[in-house]
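Example record used in the benchmark description.
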Amino acid sequence: MDMQVPKKKLGLKERYTLMTRDLAWDTTYQTKEKVYPYADYEGIKIHDWDKWEDPFRLTMDAYWKYQAEKERKLYAIIDAYSQSNGHLGVTDARYLNAIKIFLTAVTPLEYMAHRGFAHVGRAFPGAGARVACQMQAIDEMRHAQTQIHSLSNYNKYYNGFHDAPHMFDRVWYLSVPKSFFDDAITAGPFEFIVSVGFSFEYVLTNLLFVPFVSGAAYNGDMGTMTFGFSAQSDEARHMTLGLECIKFILEQDPANLPIVQRWIDKWCWRGVRLLSIVAMMMDYMLPKRVMSWKEAWEIYFEENGGALFKDLARYGIKMPACAEQIRQEKDHLSHQVWATFYNYGGATDFHTWMPTEDEMQWLSQKYPDTFDKYYRPRFEFWREQQEKGNRFYNKTLPMLCQTCQIPMLFTEPGDPTKICYRERSYKGNKYHFCSDHCQHIFDNEPEKYVQAWLPVHQIYQGNCFPEGADPTAPGFDPLAAVLEYYRLNVGHDNGEFEGSEDHRNFEAWRGMAKRND
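Model output (structure tokens):
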């Protein structure tokens, strides 16, 4: 008689089933509607959650082993970089200002994404989708931690790294990334998945991580390069999950299509506006550049994103409505944003500067139709004024877009000499917008966006001064009070890079590292 031999090892599909769907249960003493109250109100119809399939079939035990191995390698490199004074190996200290922006603007978003996916995981009735969201929530938490650990090395040597969490909640330009995730988290679970899981992670994240992290490697920053590539392997998984979520929603019911298309139009535009600062970092803040913003945009959005939307056309999904305006803006975006930050360099937490002649030549080559015609004359004039001791700092407060919260710096599509300006009256108040797309987003959800916390409005209302400040006191300096409220060390963290403390220290330390005295 033959004996039954038990299987020694379960197959991947069996293990995945045991660790996901078999962990689920049906509710008995409460209705599903009460247990999952956010599953229906957005209008998305899901008929069978069991149709959801994780393309990686990743189980939690395999996840921990995989991530632990990555952690060991990452922290070994970070330690070696720190102990060998790796900060003196970067191309020059201007590069560190891009890292300051990354730490104060991007790292907190990872934590907000963690909160968002944890919430969505709780809100979805399907067990498979819940487990996938749980893993992504842990990924996002890990990314925030590794970025803080990698970048904290610079806090020992350079200014502006000392209070990133405090600044994230207060500094004027940081309200742009903060408002993006505040908007996404306060949406329903399906819109959050489309906003972050698809529009940001799948369509736009490569524009942040691949060129910028490659730029870190190109500029000798092994710490940033290592956490970037460690995170990028997770991002590749997130991208696939985001795409599978979209397909799953569209396959469940044809009535979901117009809702999903509206969300894609909205969040692709909001993501593009958010990445304006990345365009500036790539073209102006990396001493050695891997590629221009325009080149990155053409590769990662027009080519890769174009292929993606062709694939989604079989579901009825179209290219985002903003695609044509983005195509026109790619020749102007980084120059307009850098010009704005240069003017407001006295109110930021990082240094700014005018590009050297060699760098302007590079910009002329990369932007042959626009840079010399529209931006080089302005930049050369500002550099000339700086050399005469007339470095200009704008001390006024700019008008902000009610939706994206960026100062009204963008120009009309097709006319780079005219500022784009839109306005809308709602319930007796007037609201301003940087573009038609931001105005359309407001028009769809006015009650949400009238609540926006706009930094300029808050300053005018007296809500951004240190406790005990008296704006009516003789000689009161509102800008100085606001910068104190931000906890900025004026003259150390901000202003002109040339001759700054960071500049002088870097040159002195690197000189000492190359001498025997």
